[in-house]
Write a structure and sequence with these properties.
6 helices, mainly alpha
Amino acid sequence: ERQLLTPGPGPTDSGPTDPTPDPTTTPAPTTSPDPTTTPDPTTTPDPEPSTTGPGCPTDPAETPDPAVPAEDPCPTPTA
């Protein structure tokens, strides 16, 4: 049992210490300029016209075909 309590001199223990430099390679998150590309929402200041445009009737009164399942708010214009 003492051998297990004294694994210090064992070179195998120093092995796992090598992968510890990984945190140094973690600077990847710093390269995440995605937040800078988030201005996209600003390009969609008019969500209203886009919803009523491509066959997406926001108002029930605009529904041209009552046969269209209510589950799909944006029915594909394949029909």
